[in-house]
Structures are given as structure tokens and as C-alpha cells.
TrEMBL record:
PANTHER family: PKSB, RETINOL DEHYDROGENASE 10. The keyword Oxidoreductase applies. SUPFAM superfamilies: NAD(P)-binding Rossmann-fold domains (SSF51735). Belongs to the short-chain dehydrogenases/reductases (SDR) family. Keywords: Oxidoreductase. This is 17-beta-hydroxysteroid dehydrogenase 13-like. Residues 59-245 form the Ketoreductase domain. Signal peptide: none annotated. The keyword Cell membrane does not apply. GO terms for cellular component: lipid droplet. Pfam families: adh_short (PF00106). One of its GO terms (molecular function) is oxidoreductase activity, acting on the CH-OH group of donors, NAD or NADP as acceptor.
Length: 350
């Protein structure tokens, strides 16, 4: 143990002292000094001189969850940019409708029925895509399940399993199946549709939020692996706000800001993909505020959440569960209690 290490151990716990502490401090300082100009220039370029979108003319784009909603709209918009679309969904009828709409506009599309939670079906689907359309140039992992889950609800085990299998494991199986082909060709783009709930967990949606947090970590790990391999394969993680793609889900949401129309949301998603953005939110002005709020005290975070409320309507059964376990206590600050309650309804007390 060196002299510097011994000296630092007087003031700090052993696990807080890095190896080669003097070198470590110098390297951190050097990184900060050298990268401040780079960060400033990058921000200026991003805002005022955004990168030109790449062309997908003639490229094979595989999109999961294309039977409806975001997946269908992404398929239609990518086709209008000249891409050939491989539509993948376990709902064969809805998927066929998407394919027919693309073909009716003169586009090239093929439908593949597959449950992405079943690895064998994923392998067979990829083989069929290769035979009919050629290697996949862009993968858009869009398929997902959005359903209420309460920790205290004893009857949602199957729902939790479905959400985790589709939103996380399904994405892993599809990426692991298609990635080797991209690595062999040293080209390709892997896109995951995550969610803003990957930054801020949403009550009554714990399983969904958990999978989206996990998906972000998965994509970050994949990006680092690709960098180590010096691969030209690109990754993009998209974290959208609520999208108006399902009337049933829309009717269960009480929001300060309205849902984004599916056409507008998918246009913004594609714009970020074509600029090879590593991770972004839709709308993009939400990314940094969502990072910043994590640094605030918890009660301040709660106040901001009350202002920018995103509330979920519960079923009578779910309300009964909440009521059953809610502990009512006297509060010494009635005004604060009133403030929180009224903020959730979108108004302030007089």
C-alpha cells in the first residue's frame, strides 16, 4: 500500500479509494477539461446543424408488433421512404391488413406470424425473412404489452409473466437471432422502442416500467459490446411519451399533457432513427428534464409529478385493493394535503 493510499485511508473507507488515486484524479480532471469544448460543440451542432437523415431506400426493415398501433404506423411510414418491410406479429389477421395496406400503396412488404416470446418461432421467422427478402438491415423491436399491474394484486401473475416475456425477453430473443447476421456484414441498425417510464417508474404499471428500465440497460450493454468489437452496427433506444395508439388504454389515462397522435409520434421516432441517435425521447425536449429531476429531493420530485401528472384509472377491483391497504393518518399540514390532492385533479386550492 502506497503512502498516498495510507493517507487517504485515514479519511475515507477503503472501498471509496480508487486504485492509483493520484492518476485517477488526474485522468478525471483531464477528461473534464478536454470534453467540455466537445460537449458544447456537440450541443450546438445537434440544435442548429442536425445530421442529415440516412436513406433507407431498398433496405429491409423488420418491425415487430405491426398488426396495429405504433408498429403499423412505423411500417407504413418506413415503406413511404422506400424501404422493404418485414411485418412480424402473432396476430396474423391484423398483420396481413398492414401488409395489404403497404402493397396497396405500391410498396414491398411480407407478413410473418411469430410469437417473439418463443425463441424457436423467432428463429423460424428470421429464416423465412432471409429467404423471401434477404438480410435484415434495420430491426425495430416495437412489440409490447401495456397493462395495469399492482404489487398487492394477487391475481396478476400471468399478466406480469406476459409483460416480461414480451417486453424484455422477446426483444432479447429477436436481437440475439438477428445480430450475428449484422455482425458478419458489419452493418445494421438495432432499434428498441422503450418508454419515458424507463426514467420515471409509473405507479400501477410496475411490470411495464420494470421491463422498460431493463430494456434501456440491455441496449446500453449492447452498445458497449459493439464498441469493443469496433463494429459499425448502430443502436437506438426510443423513449416516447404516451401515444394515442389504443383507445382502450387512452380512456384509462388522466394526463396533464395530451397523448401524442400516433402519426406524429412515429414521424419523430423515424426522424431520430434515421439520424442514428443513440437514445432520445419523444418529444425530444423531455430527455434532460427527466434526468435532472432524479437529482432533486424526493418530496420535490413528488411535487413535480403532481404538477405534470400522469394518472391511471383503476378498475373497481384495483381500487378495492388500494383501499384495503391504505392507512389513513392524521396530518398536521392540511394545506399540504390539500395541495397534493388538488394537484392530482389539475387545480390548486384557493
Amino acid at each position: 500500500m502506497g503512502l498516498v493510499h495510507k493517507l487517504l485511508s485515514v479519511f475515507f473507507k477503503e472501498y471509496l479509494i480508487p486504485a492509483q488515486p493520484i492518476s485517477f484524479c488526474f485522468e478525471v480532471l483531464l477528461c473534464v477539461i478536454l470534453n467540455i469544448p466537445k460537449i458544447i460543440v456537440s450541443m450546438i451542432l445537434y440544435v442548429y446543424f442536425p445530421a442529415e437523415p440516412k436513406s433507407v431506400q431498398g433496405k429491409v426493415i423488420l418491425i415487430t408488433g405491426t398488426a396495429r398501433g405504433n408498429g403499423r404506423e412505423l411500417a407504413l411510414q418506413f415503406h413511404r421512404l422506400g424501404a422493404k418491410i418485414a411485418c412480424v406479429d402473432k396476430d396474423g389477421a391484423g398483420n396481413d391488413e398492414t401488409v395489404e395496406r403497404i402493397r396497396a400503396e405500391g410498396g414491398v412488404a411480407e407478413g410473418f406470424v411469430a410469437d417473439i416470446t418463443d425463441r424457436r418461432q423467432v428463429m423460424d421467422m428470421h429464416a423465412a425473412v432471409g429467404r423471401l427478402m434477404g438480410p435484415v438491415d434495420v430491426l425495430v423491436n416495437n412489440a409490447g404489452v401495456v397493462k395495469n399491474t399492482l404489487f398487492a394484486d394477487p391475481e396478476v401473475d400471468d399478466v406480469i409473466t406476459d409483460i416480461v416475456n414480451t417486453n424484455l425477453l422477446g426483444q432479447i430473443w429477436v436481437i440475439r437471432e438477428i445480430l450475428p447476421s449484422m455482425l458478419e456484414r458489419n452493418t445494421g441498425h438495432i432499434v428498441t422502442i422503450s418508454s419515458m417510464t424507463s426514467f420515471q417508474g409509473l405507479e400501477f404499471h410496475f411490470a411495464y416500467s420494470a421491463t422498460k428500465f431493463a430494456v434501456n440497460g440491455m441496449m446500453e450493454s449492447l452498445t458497449k459490446e459493439l464498441k469493443l468489437m469496433k463494429s459499425d452496427v448502430i443502436t437506438t433506444t426510443v423513449c416516447p411519451y404516451f401515444i394515442a395508439n389504443c383507445p382502450r388504454n387512452s380512456s384509462n389515462r388522466i394526463l396533464r399533457f395530451p397523448e401524442i397522435p400516433v402519426e406524429d409520434a412515429c414521424e419523430l421516432i423515424i426522424e431520430g432513427i434515421l439520424r442514428n441517435e443513440r437514445i432520445f425521447t419523444v418529444p425530444d425536449n423531455s430527455f434532460y428534464p427527466l434526468q435532472f429531476i432524479k437529482f432533486l429531493p424526493e418530496d420535490v420530485q413528488d411535487m413535480f409529478r403532481d404538477v405534470y401528472f400522469t394518472n391511471i384509472k383503476l378498475t373497481p377491483k384495483e381500487e378495492n385493493i388500494i383501499d384495503k391497504y391504505t392507512i389513513f393518518t392524521e396530518t398536521s399540514n392540511n394545506q399540504a394535503f390539500s395541495f397534493n390532492a388538488c394537484m392530482k385533479m389539475g387545480s390548486l386550492p384557493d
